[in-house]
Amino acid sequence: MELELDLRAADKIWTQIMVDKMSAEKRSALMSRIRGKDTLPEMAVRKRLWREGFRYRLHPKGLAGRPDLVLPKWGAVVFVHGCFWHRHNGCSYFRLPKTRTAFWDAKLQRNRERDASALKTLIDAGWRLAVVWECALRRDADHVGELLATWLTMRDDSIEIEEAGSEVKDRPLIVSGR
Ligand SMILES: [Zn+2]
Question: How many Å lie between the centroid of ligand 1 and the Cα of residue 100?
Answer without folding.
Answer: 22
